[in-house]
Amino acid sequence: MAIMDVEVVRQIGQMPAFKFWLLATGAILVTAAAFAFAFRWLRRARLIEDMPTSRIRSAAQGYVELEGTARAMAGEPVIAPLTGQPCCWYRYKVERRGDRGGWRRLEHGASDALFLLEDGTGRCVVDPEGADVTLQERHVWYGTNRRPGNAASRNGNANMLLRVGRWLGRNALDGDRYRYTEELIVDGMPLYAMGEFKTLDELDDRRARGEITRGLLREWKRDGAALLARFDANEDGRLDEQEWEAARQLARKEAARMQQAQHRQQIPHLLFRPRSGRAFLLSTKSQSDLARRYRWRAAGGAAAFLLAGGAVTWLITARMLG
């Protein structure tokens, strides 16, 4: 055993029990976390490789894999907060460089707006809440203000010069104290998705129709005089059971008409986070690239597991020898 090794073993052996077990517990936790993440990422890679891709028109209800094109929904557009670019989904963060170096996050966020997945056989509404989103590209640039200007955000050459300058350690760039990161899913981008698939059925229609009916009746009750004038057939100043039933029947008919109008604009399929806890994945990468990414992550987790596990073994051995 080398002199340095003997000295280190002696120090470990003489370390107070509390400090030693605190250090050992930390190493054990790192080992366990590395194993858990490596297993999780490997399982995701296998899932992506093994699950067959469904088509929206014929997809079964439940956990599915879909692949197609991202499309924005009609109505108010989703706007990326840093560049102001219309998109289907965004994720961003703003960081500030400290006086001693390093970056501190000031703000961050992600879109929760619904968007569409289109695959040639149909369209599916995607609810991105809770999804693990992996994108092909992310845009990083620098500036002097907390919020960037749109022109600077799109100047790729300037961004590259800034990165090279920082790598060279030039003081001339010290004024750029803010770093901006933005990731987008833009209308027309390829989109891979894995999650819970549901098609609205007759039961959902009946529930929705019932809600519309109850809403109409509540609205009519707010104007008691108009309600009596409309349904008080015997003009006794109140609504009896038969008159209430006539009001309910008319509300049901009106609800059915409103629901039919909604159906002409609605998309009946929905993809969302599985309640079972299974993976909910969205990505602009291809299936093969995404699976490869998870395999690399799993390999890194396995390496961390081996290193951390070796550190635990070494610590305990050194303690026993010291």
Helix-strand makeup class: alpha+beta
Total helices: the number is: 8
Helix content: 40-55%
Radius of gyration: 30 Å
Contiguous uncertain segments of 5+ residues: 151-162, 164-173
Number of domains: 2
Order of helices and strands: HHEEEEEEEEEHHEEHHHEEH
% residues in beta strands: 15-25%
Distance between the termini: 13 Å
Give the spatial strand order of the biggest sheet.
1-6-7-12-11
Q: What's the overall average pLDDT, rounded?
A: 81
Overall geometry comes to elongated
Largest sheet: 5 strands, mixed, barrel
Q: What is the count of β-strands?
A: 13
Secondary-structure blueprint of this entry?
Layout: H1 3-14, H2 17-50, E1 62-71, E2 78-79, E3 86-87, E4 89-97, E5 103-110, E6 115-118, E7 123-126, E8 132-134, E9 139-143, H3 150-153, H4 156-168, E10 178-185, E11 190-199, H5 202-222, H6 224-231, H7 241-263, E12 269-272, E13 281-283, H8 287-321
Parallel strand pairs: 7-12, 8-13
Antiparallel strand pairs: 1-6, 1-11, 2-3, 4-5, 4-10, 6-7, 9-10, 11-12, 11-13
Helix pairs in contact: 1-8, 2-8, 5-7
Please explain how this structure is put together.
This protein has 322 residues and is α+β, with helices and mostly antiparallel strands. The protein has two domains: 3-197 and 272-321, no CATH class; 201-265, no CATH class. The protein is 47% helix and 22% strand. The chain has eight helices and 13 strands. It has a five-stranded mixed β-barrel. Strand 4 and strand 5 form a beta hairpin. Helix 1 crosses helix 8 (287-321), helix 2 runs antiparallel to helix 8 and helix 5 (202-222) crosses helix 7 (241-263). The chain starts with a helix and ends with a helix. 20% of the residues are buried. The model is unreliable at 151-162 and 164-173 (pLDDT under 50).
